[in-house]
């Protein structure tokens, strides 16, 4: 599918001609300056050298809103090597937790280190286009990969389109450090009562049915993304906690149902907490779910 952009001129529609950027470095520099806005990723560093063994340079490193380490690779034109190149660097990243975490502390501060979640490192490839073979290939790789297509329209418009996204599978930390074992989101769901599992299945179906939604199984919760996260779901013994990307000040809060969690530490992204304990409560929450989805359009 080709992204088409039109300028409205009264009742007339004029199509804008999209093109690749003149220089790959220009695209990279622009994305790095605006990485949080464009990708929902906090920028850490550029042109990161991987040493003599891997012998290369990672275009960009970042940390996303879920705490996942992110590699971003760019190609100004259509080039299947961008995926292979990113996978090559992912191997370096998995073997150099200490170097990445030192970078997080240097750029974001010591407190940000607690956010880093090595269960699902992420690759974002940004290129002018992809072949159908590229889209198929990432589904076979069992890695968390997003393929993003860009088009420039003149000097002041840039369009980003998520062509394909694969959640991959969670991996162990691999750090060798002794950690306290805590159940993952997947384990909590597997061990939940049948009523809670049925409630989750209903919620999951509703969120995915909005369209253009990707779910990612993370260590502590399941993220539902439309670009950035719009909902994060955590399974509990008596029901579900859902964190929505909505302003709590714009919602009539109800004790036991909705809560303002700005400034309150919690797993998942979103400032509005919604507690769902039954199908009836899920039905009440439906307008809030839709509002969060539409807020990230």
From TrEMBL:
Pfam family, one: DUF5655
Domain DUF5655: 187-294
Annotated GO MF terms: nucleic acid binding
Domain of life where this protein originates: Bacteria
This protein's name: Transporter
Source organism (scientific name): Kitasatospora phosalacinea
Classification of source organism: Bacteria, Bacillati, Actinomycetota, Actinomycetes, Kitasatosporales
């Amino acid at each position: 599918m080709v992204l088409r952009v039109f300028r409205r001129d009264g009742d007339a529609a004029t199509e804008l001609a999209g093109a690749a950027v003149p220089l790959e470095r220009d695209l990279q520099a622009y994305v790095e300056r605006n990485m949080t806005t464009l990708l929902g990723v906090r920028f850490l560093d550029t042109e990161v050298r991987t040493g003599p063994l891997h012998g290369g340079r990672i275009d960009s490193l970042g940390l996303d809103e879920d705490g996942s380490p992110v590699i971003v690779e760019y190609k100004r034109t259509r080039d299947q090597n961008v995926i292979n190149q990113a996978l090559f660097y992912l191997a370096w990243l998995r073997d150099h937790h200490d170097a990445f975490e030192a970078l997080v502390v240097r750029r974001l501060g010591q407190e940000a280190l607690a956010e880093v979640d090595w269960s699902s490192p992420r690759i974002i490839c940004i290129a002018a286009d992809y072949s159908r073979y590229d889209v198929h290939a990432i589904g076979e790789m069992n890695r968390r990969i997003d393929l993003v297509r860009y088009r420039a329209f003149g000097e002041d418009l840039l369009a980003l389109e998520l062509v394909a996204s694969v959640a991959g599978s969670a991996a162990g930390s691999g750090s060798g450090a002794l950690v306290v074992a805590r159940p993952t989101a997947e384990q909590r769901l597997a061990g939940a009562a049948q009523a809670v599992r049925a409630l989750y299945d209903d919620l999951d179906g509703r969120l995915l049915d909005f369209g253009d939604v990707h779910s990612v199984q993370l260590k502590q919760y399941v993220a539902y993304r439309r670009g950035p996260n719009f909902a994060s779901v955590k399974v509990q013994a008596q029901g579900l906690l859902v964190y929505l990307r909505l302003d709590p000040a714009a919602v009539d809060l109800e004790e036991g149902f909705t809560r303002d969690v700005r400034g309150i530490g919690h797993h998942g992204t979103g400032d509005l907490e919604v507690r769902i304990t039954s199908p009836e409560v899920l039905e009440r929450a439906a307008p809030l779910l839709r509002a969060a989805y539409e807020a990230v359009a």
